Amino acid sequence: MAGVSTAPATFPMSLDKPATVVVKRPAKNETGNGEEQEEVLVIEGIEVNKDEFVKFDVFINDEDEEVASSAGPEKTEFAGSFVNVPRKKREDGGDGGGKVIKTRLRIGISELLEGLGVKDDDEHVVVKLVPKCDNVHVLIGGVKIEIE
H-type helices in 71-123, by residue range? Predict the structure, then answer.
């Protein structure tokens, strides 16, 4: 199994180096009106210091391709980035709250999965989080996929 750990990720996780998470895909419900359902990758409980520049990239791969020894970067797709831009202190001396903020990132991934050749019956995808800044505080509370 090249590159994928079979041990489940434990959350919250510190994002001080690239992290790979196998994420279960929810079952799609059939709608009678022919509407497409969007799969949305949700990275929740992102904790960062509000006065630090933080960036991490998100990549997705089909679990079957990641496990295969011949899989390479050509089968991985860039899904998006999370960026925190430092806040300026207010002129009245207040900083608008505590130093740590908690937020989430939502990325529509249906077209991306289709481009990778991920089939509806594939139960998992591999999500890789790659930090782009050194020595910053980043905690990830969880990673999941929702249907909208």
Answer: 110-116
